[in-house]
Each structure stands twice: as C-alpha cells, then as structure tokens.
Amino acid sequence: MVTKDTLFRPKGTSAETKAATTDKAFRDIVATEAKLRDAKSARLRQARLEREAQQPPAPEKPKARARKPKAK
Description:
Radius of gyration: 31 Å
Largest sheet: none
Distance between the termini: 103 Å
Helix content: 55-70%
Number of strands: 0
Mean pLDDT: 87
Oligomer: single chain
Structural class: mainly alpha
Order of helices and strands: HH
C-alpha cells in the first residue's frame, strides 16, 4: 500500500548530500591508504627479518671501564 511516507521519501539538503559524498570518498581514500601502508610495513618487516636471519651475529663490544674520579 502506498502511503505518504513510502511515496515521498525525505531527501537531505544538497549540502548534506555533498557532505555525505565527500565524507564517504574521504573515508574510502583513507582506508585504502591504510591498507597499502600496512601491507608495505608487513613486507618490509618480513624482508628485514629475513636479512637479519642471514647475517652472522655481531660480536659483542667490550664493556667500557668505569672512569676513576679526578683527584682535586
């Protein structure tokens, strides 16, 4: 059955519609950039871990000796 609520849907103002469109586009762009950034970080982390696994362990540096206080 057709009523005034189903026949005429309330529409937002053109400013609200444009703002909603802009907001959606912005959120899509940010989400896409975040996915790309996370993928790049994961790829670089994996490459770093593989490179570190192939390198021999670095020799430990000798500990610095404690300095004696200067006599006055």
